[in-house]
Amino acid sequence: MSPDRRFEQELPGLLDDLYLGPMPTYRDHVLRQTVRTRQRPAWLIPERWLPMVDIAGQPVLVRRLPWRTIGLVVLLMALLVVALAALAVGGRPNLPPPFGPAANGLVAYASGGDIHTVNPVTGASTVIVKGPGDADPRFSRDGTRIAFTRQGASAGTSLLYVVSADGSGLVQVTPQALPSTEIETFTFSPDGKEILISASPGVFTHFQIANTDGSGIRTINLPRDATDAAWRPPDGAEILFQENADVPNTADSGIYAVNVHDGKVRTILAGGEAGNRFRGNAAWSPDGSLISFGEWQGLTGIDVQTHIIAADGTGDRVLPMPTNAVWQAPESWSNDGTRLLVIRGYSDDFTQARPVAIPVAGGGLGVEIPYPGGMGTPDVTSWEWAPDDTSILGTPADASGTALDQVLLDPVAGTSRTPSWTSVAQPTWQRLGR
User: Fold this and answer.
1) How far apart are CA 344 and CA 400, in angstroms?
2) Contacts of 224 (CB under 8 A, 6+ apart)
3) 3-class DSSP state for residue 394?
4) Per-residue pLDDT tens for 46-63?
5) Which whole number is the average pLDDT over 231-253?
6) If you average pLDDT over every residue of the chain, what do you get?
7) What is the pLDDT of residues 105-116, one digit of tens each?
8) Is 21 within the bounds of a domain?
């Protein structure tokens, strides 16, 4: 037999061997192990119970929400936002603007060397700062703080302090004691960050401006003795002041304004132009557009008249008074700027004088308020209208110039009454947001 023939005969067997592959030597061991292991029951196989389908290919049905439900959800979310905003606003005090009408708050006054606040409606009084020697409280324009003086260690000196309206957070704002005559008048700036300190009557040629947080004090020098300093509404960019007349023992004369940023002085009414006339009690209107002041001839007796001018000194006019009245002195503006409290006299002295709420625009003689024993003409800071202009709180002076207990005037009914508290301090009334 040839070799080719032998290969052809053996080829099928070789192919069968190659197909099956070599038999592993551990085959018998594997067979013995599997024989001893029981198979899992068919009911445990998940495929027997669950339909095996192509999940990715199956449609997913989502229930559509009706528009009414969607709108309700949106409305609830909006109400939640409004409630959160109201809660945030309610956590902050509703502060009033620095000028113009506001709601009435507490009245602050000094008594027995302590600072008190009193509810003018109920008469309930609280000591918020105990002395020693505290006096002349002044509310800030937003009603949140009070400035007051404290007697210094040396005789005739005072320190200036600021405290919250509830008596907390006491801060000394003057680094050292100043002569008491130099801080007889002081007022908060419109933004409440500074306090203007000046003398009355003027014997100093400068003002002091102290930071209310106690961080420092600066001086504004002036070319002449100055008195009756006042921030100009609404931003306090200027300070109104008057000079002492050259003639000794006379009233103030020239009226000026100084820029608080560069110290430049602007003449409103020069003293030399007055001749023998003298001026005093100058005050800004609540919007800063007008100035009221008193002017008198300085002849026998009292002959002062109330004048109104524009902030630049133009448009001078005199407020009317009855034909039998002799004189009329300006005191304090209403918060809405429509009326002015004046003291009107019917003799050439103070014995027949009484307060009057008179329209600034003219057209009326005002509402006179009877007052027993006559009334003097103290500083303009001695009278303050209630924030809502329904009453006027004042510390009047009698005919001899002695300060009397505070009094409440009704500028509409023309009546006066004694408040529940007793004080000869200058009046100050807390302004609240409406």
Assistant:
1) 16
2) 205, 243, 244, 254
3) strand
4) 555 555 555 445 555 556
5) 76
6) 83
7) 999 999 999 999
8) no
Two tokens at 270?
């020069």
Residue 88 placed within a domain: no
Contact in structure between 132 and 113 (CB atoms under 8 Å): yes
pLDDT on residue 88: 45
Q: Residue type at 360?
A: V
Out of 15-29, 109-123, 204-218, 228-242, which region has the weakest mean confidence (pLDDT)? Answer: 15-29
pTM: predicted TM-score of the whole model, two decimal places: 0.77
Instruction: Look up residue 5 and give its amino acid.
Output: R
Neighbours of 286 (CB within 10 A): 20
Domain CATH number, residue 284: 2.120.10.30
For residue 190, the Cα-to-chain-centroid distance in whole angstroms is: 8
Residue 204 lies in a domain: yes
Around Cβ 365, how many Cβ atoms within 10 Å? Answer: 17
Full residue range of the structural domain in which residue 237 is found: 194-432
Task: Count how many domains the chain has.
Answer: 1
Cβ proximity of 342 and 366 under 8 Å? yes
Place of tokens 């109920």: 122
Q: Taking Cα atoms as reference points, which of 168, 167, 159 lies closest to residue 135? A: 159
Residue 270 counted as domain residue: yes
Which amino acid is it at 170?
A: L
Provide the terminal-to-terminal Cα distance of the chain, rounded to the nearest Å. Answer: 129
What's the confidence (pLDDT) of residue 272? 60
